[in-house]
Design a protein that fits this description.
The protein has about 200 residues and is of the alpha+beta class. It is built from four helices and 13 strands. The two termini are about 25 Å apart.
């Protein structure tokens, strides 16, 4: 994967998308360089406000760039107190950058492969603040993400490579898993058909 100078900053969301398309033109993923790109972009509400769609009942996934099938870049909007279930990432790389507010990420070990029920073991947690970037993949573990602020919303920028349409969500008390279909609340700033959202299960990030 050809790279720009590691000191090169990304000045806009459009420039970030363009550079992501360039580097994902190959089949390899340089995790450190993608992390650098996500970190280099500094949140600018004028860049992303058109994609920031909120729902008072749940957090929303809003597609910014489909990445020619190589990646998905999306804006995730979290209302006050909204959060995900515990979930995996279907063998995908997951980068999460804060654009507004603050999120809490809690990570868990995978449940034991032995039969029976077992409580998922927490392995760490951290606060993600504006312009910070967090990374996880399935070899690191599972996680859940939550806006613990009950007076302020939060907005984050997520990159998944490769994209996926379903993952597993987990019961913290038993370790049992179930399939979760993931959809988009909006695409490219436009609301997706309402019926699609009504037929899907709760989503994860």
């Amino acid at each position: 994967m050809e790279q720009k100078n590691a000191n090169t900053d990304i000045s806009s969301l459009e420039e970030l998308c363009n550079e992501l398309h360039r580097i994902f033109d190959s089949d390899s993923v340089n995790v450190d360089y993608v992390h650098h790109l996500m970190s280099s972009y500094k949140s600018n509400i004028d860049d992303w406000k058109i994609f920031a769609k909120f729902d008072r009942h749940r957090y929303t996934r809003n597609l910014v760039d489909a990445g020619n099938g190589k990646f998905n870049l999306m804006i995730v909007c979290w209302g006050e107190g909204q959060g995900s279930s515990i979930h995996d990432h279907a063998d995908s790389h997951c980068f999460m950058k804060m654009l507004m507010g603050e999120l809490t990420e809690v990570r868990y070990e995978w449940p034991s492969s032995s039969s029976g029920e077992s409580t998922l073991q927490e392995i760490g947690s951290n606060k993600i603040t504006v312009d910070q970037v967090s990374y996880i993949n399935d070899s690191i573990g599972l996680h859940r993400v939550e806006n613990q602020n009950h007076t302020e919303p939060a907005v984050s920028l997520h990159l998944y490579c490769p994209p996926y349409s379903s993952c597993y969500m987990f019961d913290q008390r038993t370790g049992h898993k179930s399939v979760c279909q993931v959809t988009f609340w909006s695409k490219y700033g436009e609301r997706t058909p309402y019926i699609t959202q009504m037929l899907t299960t709760p989503e994860n990030n």
